[in-house]
Amino acid sequence: MDLKWEDGFMIAVKNEGRQVVISANREGLLSLANNLRTLADETPGCHFHLDMYNSLEEGSAELVVEKC
């Protein structure tokens, strides 16, 4: 799956107890929306991983998004 990112995107993910908070600037939200749309067209079981070494801000919790 080919993920595409808007220039200047910023996305952070924090695990705060029983909730997960995703914070993003405009470009980050557009990127997430586009990548979720791409995932929606894939087969069940397809997924993507994001972490601070791959697209998320430093200190972010890992985020896995999967189509069921």
3D structure, described in words:
The chain is α+β, with helices and mostly antiparallel strands. The protein has one domain (11-66). 22% of the residues lie in helices and 29% in strands. The chain contains one helix and four strands. The protein has one helix at 26-40, and strands at 11-16, 19-24, 47-50, 63-66. The strands form two sheets. A two-stranded antiparallel ribbon has the order 1-2. The chain has a two-stranded antiparallel sheet with strand order 3-4. Strand 1 (11-16) and strand 2 form a beta hairpin.
Low-confidence stretches: none
Coarse shape: globular
Number of helices: 1
Rounded to the nearest angstrom, the distance between the terminal CA atoms is: 16 Å
Q: What radius of gyration results from the CA coordinates?
A: 12 Å
Structural class designation? alpha+beta
H/E series: EEHEE
The tally of strands reads 4
- Major sheet strand order: 1-2
Average of per-residue pLDDT values: 97
Helicity level: 10-25%
Biggest pleated sheet: 2 strands, antiparallel
Question: How many domains in all?
Answer: 1
- How much strand content do the residues show? 25-35%
What is the structure about, briefly put?
The protein is α+β, with helices and mostly antiparallel strands and about 70 residues long. About 20% of the residues lie in helices and about 30% in strands. A two-stranded antiparallel sheet has the order 1-2. The protein has a two-stranded antiparallel ribbon with strand order 3-4.
